[in-house]
Amino acid sequence: MNHSIALHKLFSILSYTSQIDHFSFTQKRYSTLRSELISPILLPNLTHFSIYGTDLTFDTFEIFITKIYSKLKVLSLKNLAEDMTYLDADRWEKFVLKYLSKLEKIYLTYIFLPNRHSSERHIGKSNRFNSSFWIERQWIFEIEIRFDSIIYSIHPYKYINGKLFFLENDGLNMIHNII
Predict the structure, then answer these.
(1) Which contacts (CB < 8 Å, 24+ apart) does range 12-18 have?
(2) Is residue 36 one of the residues assigned to a domain?
(3) pLDDT beneath 70: ranges in the chain
(4) Per-residue H/E/C for 115-141
């Protein structure tokens, strides 16, 4: 869908498309999700899901995914928000194990626009994205610091001939030479 949409309206649309296997949409800004108004949806063929959210909290994202019964293999999430919960590796691990057991690839891009107050509380946090859970799935966590933003990303990686590559948009990009 090349259109911004409120999450509760998206559920109405999805309820009529039970055979869908790939789905991508943009979450409408300042859209709230009232979980009590949403019935779970069975989407047995949905394997690839992409969402772009401008203010999508992790709690809302979690509720949204738990209301969709599917066998997701690829999840792509790009978010511009101030919810640092997206960087909680332990919470991601529990969530994936419980609700996304078939997930093979994850592409998370979290763009954080720090200000004087918010950036200080995240400096020095430990990186739990290097646990066995992340290593076994060959998912890597990266941080890119730009002039006006910090970009956190999680994506698959792969070794080819001693070189570390990451997979992005179904293309292969080299991170660095291991040897």
Answers:
(1) 14/41, 14/43, 14/68, 15/39, 15/41, 17/43, 18/42, 18/43, 18/44, 18/45
(2) no
(3) 1-4, 28-37, 115-127, 158-179
(4) CCCCHHHHCCCCCHHHCHHHHHHCEEE
Helix (H) or strand (E) holding 108: strand 105-112
Task: Domain count for the chain, please give it.
Answer: 1
Does residue 39 lie within any of the structural domains? no
- Domain that includes residue 94, residue range: 4-27+44-177
Dist CA 47 CA 38 (whole Å): 21
Instruction: Note whether 49 and 75 are within 8 A (CB).
Output: yes
DSSP string, 4-17: EE-HHHHHHHHTT-
Judge whether 159 and 178 are in contact, CB under 8 Å: yes
pLDDT of residue 168: 55
Which tens digit of pLDDT belongs to each residue from 91-115? 999 999 999 999 999 999 888 777 6
Inside any domain, residue 99: yes
